[in-house]
Write a structure and sequence with these properties.
Number of strands: 6
Strand content: over 45%
Number of helices: 1
Shape: globular
Protein name: Immunity protein 50
Organism: Chitinophaga rupis
Number of domains: 1
Oligomer: single chain
Largest sheet: 6 strands, antiparallel
């Protein structure tokens, strides 16, 4: 999957679910996000594999769909990515991570995932 908009139109797509799999910590750390795509109402599960950081700032208590404003891969100078490598003092320098960012239309809502890869699984 090309996370930077070539496969789907992110804007106004709906974030339906987030699943965190820590059943085998260190060996299988993954995040799954279910998205209902705006352009055709199809549904996909995005599976982020080999996750090293998950940050979510989200608003709750608001009765509305959690629609996506924008999603992208952050540049290599993203603060969370730089901080991760700095904190581990070279222990993970051999691992190439992407910083995946999903911002929703709720004020201030943002999800950041540092992971090696992301795959798309079509559900509908």
């Amino acid at each position: 999957m090309n996370f930077n908009f070539n496969d789907h139109y992110w804007h106004d797509s709906v974030l339906e679910n987030i699943f965190i799999d820590r059943s085998d910590p260190g060996n299988n750390d993954s995040i799954e996000i279910v998205i209902k795509w705006h352009e055709d109402n199809s549904v996909s599960r995005l599976v982020f594999k080999n996750v090293y950081l998950f940050k979510a700032v989200m608003n709750f208590g608001i009765i509305a769909n959690e629609s996506i404003d924008i999603a992208y891969i952050a540049p290599s100078d993203d603060n969370d990515l730089v901080d991760f490598y700095s904190k581990w003092k070279g222990a993970y320098d051999h691992i190439s991570l992407n910083c995946y960012v999903i911002k929703t239309s709720s004020t201030g809502s943002e999800i950041k995932i540092l992971a090696e890869t992301v795959e798309e699984v079509h559900l509908q």
